[in-house]
Amino acid sequence: QEKSSRLSAALFGEDCEVSHDQLYELLKYAALGKCHNATQPSWCRIYHQSHLAGVVVIVLQEMSQLHFYKFYLQFKHLRKVFRHRFTLTPSANFLASLYGEGANLKPENTAQGLTSTSSDGIPESSDLQCDPIVRKYGEKKRGLTSYTLTLEEQKKNYYPMKGSPGCKGYIYTECDQQRTDSSPLFGLDCEMCLTAKGNEVTRVSLVDAQGQCLLNELVKPEGAVVNYRTRFSGITKKMLLPVKTRLPDIQTRLKKMLPRDAVLVGHSLNADLQALEMIHPSVIDTSLLFARNEGRRFKLKFLAKAVLGKEIQCEQKLGHDPAEDARAALELAQFFIEQGPAKVAELNLEMLLTTEKLAEVSQNKAALQPQGCRVQKQLNEPPHPSKPCFLDCLQVTGQKPLLLGRQELDSSGLCQSNLSTSNKQILQRALEDVPLSTFSIIQFSLGPEYIASHLLTGVCEKVRSKLTDMLTIYAGPFEESFCLKSVKKEFGRCGPIQSLTVVTETYQPYVCIQYEVLEAAQLAVESLNGAEVAGSCIKVQRPVTAAMLDCDVLIKELELDVENEGVIYVAGLKKSLTETDLQEEFSQLKDLETLFLPKDLQSGKHRNCCFLKFQKSESAVDALEVINGWTVKGSRLRSRNALASGHLWRWIWQMNHSNGKQGGNILHEKMEQLSDSEQDLRKKVKKLDQHIKKLYRSLQNNTLCVVLFPGVN
Question: How far is CA 642 from the centre of its chain?
């Protein structure tokens, strides 16, 4: 809703349906901008993408569009805040489709960087030529100066540099001496906490070429700490209380400790130097040194285990140890220099990573299956070209994606089920960690007890029944010999009729009419109740059932829905009128933005109604007064505020036709008390809405926030 980064899209007709590929386009461009071949999505535009503070995707597991309208009144905050809604086509592997089905979920083929191996597991020499490490450095051993980043590489990977606009006030290490292959290597790593000023250094470690720790210092941040990030940083409030050392002290000490020809080594070292607010001319970045295809990077933890045989960043420890990480990065660089690119390529790291993932899939198979995760099935399918995983691409700019929920993704990209995690716990984690991440996926869940097929069928039937009742009106009484054609003509002026039947069980005949759109039924109740039709003064009403007792409240809320802001419904059009005719007729209306003429989704013929969207709500109100009673080419028009946006109109049509019944067979919900499970479900949905409200309010300005109802099939 911010002017500097706004999302614009057409919201009528076919444009209301979004595929997973289109969603992927949007999220990839929002997260990466023009980097990594990300382009504007084909179906909408994001203006000033560089102004985006972050992307947050909230996934409501097990819930679909069906649940949104079943619990429309409970989703009070969600429907008032989120202005654009689209029908999302189903996906077999929903989570993977969010971020692209890259190496995180399937073994890669040769094109994606997996080299074929000989019987002893060593890549054949012909395949070595295709390895990204060999392509980048060649096969021969070289000295360390061949692996330091060039100025162009530093700029591309967001390293602080002299003269860069964002580096004003940064301290230069003044290590200007010419580097040689015998220049000393130093490992560097920092841990950060979130403060009122942003990410600030709270711990710095420096190790020398022999692995000796030269510096392992806590640092007092300038700003008040908002989040200690203890799970990652290992820093606690108690640890920082006695600390007097400030960032300028560390900068001075580092300048004194580093020789004039020092080469700094680190994993994604750009983030550490940015946090230190220091510029150093000669660096080796191990996340770039061990090259992969498509800009992806190996994690330091994986490289330490695969190359050095060392376990680091163990889950048992409280946070990362920067000295341990600095030493691991240093030893990786030393291994690469000593062994040379060909030997490193022979390790076949891509194969090792894939094997590790396959082993974890096997271990987690039992946990994955109940949650509907289709990883195992995919692994049995032949590999096919896949979309690159843009979560990996985020690492290039030093960004770390956040994935929270009962079905979390671990570092290898596999689903991990944790049914003991509550939505409240997930919310608390999200409130702490979302501000630290530029791309977050937060999953809330109703719980497995609510996805049973019989329960889902019950919800579906109730929604279908209620929608049918809302589309239906009873009119009468009429005289015994009334003209049915006159009745159909009069009620047809309110909108397209799906079915019309005469009710003969009553003392005098009544007519039951089922409309195709909600606005038509409401217009009939408002304009024809108490009117004289076919020679009789009639009453017009909807069916009276337990589910319909809150119908008036629901109609009012639909009318006030943000999607219907500035939109009016117009009925009574002659079917001979074309869209061009209507554009001409309505051109005099002030601030008219869009005209949408609904079509029958089977025949393709347009209906006798249309929707008009105005740039301003006041203009829509003025248009209602003008249009009511207007005559267009002999046809008298009726209008009211819109109730159903484009995607809801299409969905109602599909629900009414999905069971193959054409009118007449109107289902009525029995007047009985809600079951305990449904009452509980209402409470859960209301709580979810409050969670979304809290999370939304915690977001920074210019954040793109998307809420997804993936369903279960």
Answer: 28
Both 179 and 262 in one domain: the answer is: yes
Q: Which residue has the higher pLDDT, 90 or 214?
A: 214
Query: Count of domains in the chain?
Result: 3
Q: What is the pLDDT of residue 657?
A: 61
Q: Are 455 and 489 in contact (CB under 8 A)?
A: no
Q: Do 494 and 571 reside in the same domain of the chain?
A: no
Rounded (to 5) percent helix, strand, coil in the chain: 40, 20, 40
Residue 25 pLDDT level (bands cut at 50, 70, 90): confident
| Mean pLDDT to the nearest integer, 615-628 | 91
Asked whether the predicted pLDDT for residue 712 surpasses 80, the reply is no
pLDDT at residue 649, rounded to an integer: 65
Q: What is the CATH number of the domain that holds 283?
A: 3.30.420.10
Contact between 81 and 696 (Cβ < 8 Å): yes
Domain that holds residue 192: 129-352
Domain end call among 642, 662, 680? 642
Q: Give the N- to C-terminal CA distance of the chain in Å, as an integer.
A: 32
Residues 212 and 177 in one domain: yes
Tokens of 635: 């046809």
Neighbour count for residue 246 (Cβ, 10 Å) = 13
| HSE-CB for 621 with a 13 A CA cutoff | 3
DSSP state of 395: G
Q: Which residues lie closer than 8 Å to 38 by C-beta, 6 or more apart? A: 28, 29, 31, 32, 390
Asked if residue 656 belongs to a domain, the reply is: no
Same domain? 576 vs 518: no
Q: Which of 285, 317, 352 is the last residue in one of the domains?
A: 352
* In contact, 2 and 701? CB cutoff 8 Å: yes
Hey, what are 190's tokens?
């920092």
* Residue 505 counted as domain residue: yes
The strand pairing partners of 185, in sequence order, are 263
CB atoms within 10 A of CB 654: 11
* CATH number of the structural domain spanning residue 500: 3.30.70.330
What are the angstrom distances between the C-alpha of 412 and each of 20, 352, 385, 392, 456?
22, 12, 19, 11, 33
Distance CA(43)–CA(26), nearest Å, equals 9
* Cα–Cα distance, 255 to 258 (Å, whole number): 6
Task: Check whether residue 224 and residue 281 sit in a common domain.
Answer: yes
